[in-house]
Amino acid sequence: MTTATEAPDAAGRTAARGVARLLALRTAAPDTVVPQASAFDTYYREVYRDVSKAEEIFRGSGVTQRHMAWDPRTAYADGFPTIKPRMAAWEESVLAMSRRTVGGVLEDAGADELRDRIGTFVMASCTGYAGPTPDILLAKEFELRQDLRRTFIGHMGCNAAFNVLKTAFDALAARPGELVLAGSAEVCSVHHRPEVSAEQAVVNALFGDAGAMTLLGADDGGPGPVFLGTHTETHPETTHAMSWHIEDLAFRMTLSPYVPFYLAESIEPFVKRLLAPHGLDVGDVRHWGVHPGGPKIIDFVGEKLDLTPEQLAPSRAVLAEHGNCSSATILLILDRILRTSRPAPGELAVLMAFGPGLTMESALVRF
């Protein structure tokens, strides 16, 4: 667990000092927007014609549109490509999205003054592999320091943004005078496979493409969002419930329909263990970012924590407009909270995501 420390403020009072301050956040997605209803009617209906609940799955996904590097209505019209062109498309799209997000956070924060202070770059993607990894190519393109410390995190799934953030927090703890670029980019659309099952219909009804990048600095007591701490738990008895493997044609995801039930059983004590070190409980938190692994996950978590429709709105909006974009999703939700909920200074947020393991990740943010 990563937790804030106590430090005196300017008036000599003791105040919670966070593990990192959010200096900038940018998101990006492929330009192609794929409406859910149109994609089902013109493509997926035929693909899943032998799955009796296919239309119900797509209509009930909570997704109204997705941004996709590969529009399934055209990319798979002549069959299913092998892994090589899929990985080429992944690399191209990750770099395209990340040019926008990295460039955006540097612009927002004042690149000329801060560029030389960026000492660490942490990036995640679980939807592809290439070497040099994208962070190397981006560091070269944006002329970042030659002694830049880089970490590329792969194959950790929808919770990987938290692993990115925790690595960034450790870097700032060791070198508080430096800044950290931290983010992810995912291209789920390149992994559609010729498997006709209800499970794969769920996967193809949910996942979209997106990227997000943050610029983080040590908490200096200034204004703006501060990460106060994180909490992680893994429940190995449920390792069978979610998986992500490379097969001959594409990556293959398995997603048990019982995942929402597993999470519902664990979510209350999990959140309490995040909040307790800060003397907080659920009622003290105004804003919530729940990773939308699917609409039932939002429903079950909201019910268990007694959250209001308003508190769940950012998660539902991101699911509707982008789908589940794997590791990038929670940063899309944080961006949504900042832009639309407009938290007041001092208000709190809990962000959470879930991935293979089953792994549960969370972070506490003070605005």
Automatic annotation (TrEMBL):
<dbReference type="InterPro" id="IPR012328">
    <property type="entry name" value="Chalcone/stilbene_synt_C"/>
</dbReference>
<protein>
    <submittedName>
        <fullName>Type III polyketide synthase</fullName>
    </submittedName>
</protein>
<dbReference type="Pfam" id="PF00195">
    <property type="entry name" value="Chal_sti_synt_N"/>
</dbReference>
<dbReference type="InterPro" id="IPR016039">
    <property type="entry name" value="Thiolase-like"/>
</dbReference>
<keyword id="KW-0808">Transferase</keyword>
<dbReference type="InterPro" id="IPR001099">
    <property type="entry name" value="Chalcone/stilbene_synt_N"/>
</dbReference>
<dbReference type="InterPro" id="IPR011141">
    <property type="entry name" value="Polyketide_synthase_type-III"/>
</dbReference>
<feature type="domain" description="Chalcone/stilbene synthase N-terminal">
    <location>
        <begin position="13"/>
        <end position="219"/>
    </location>
</feature>
<comment type="similarity">
    <text>Belongs to the thiolase-like superfamily. Chalcone/stilbene synthases family.</text>
</comment>
<dbReference type="Pfam" id="PF02797">
    <property type="entry name" value="Chal_sti_synt_C"/>
</dbReference>
<feature type="domain" description="Chalcone/stilbene synthase C-terminal">
    <location>
        <begin position="235"/>
        <end position="366"/>
    </location>
</feature>
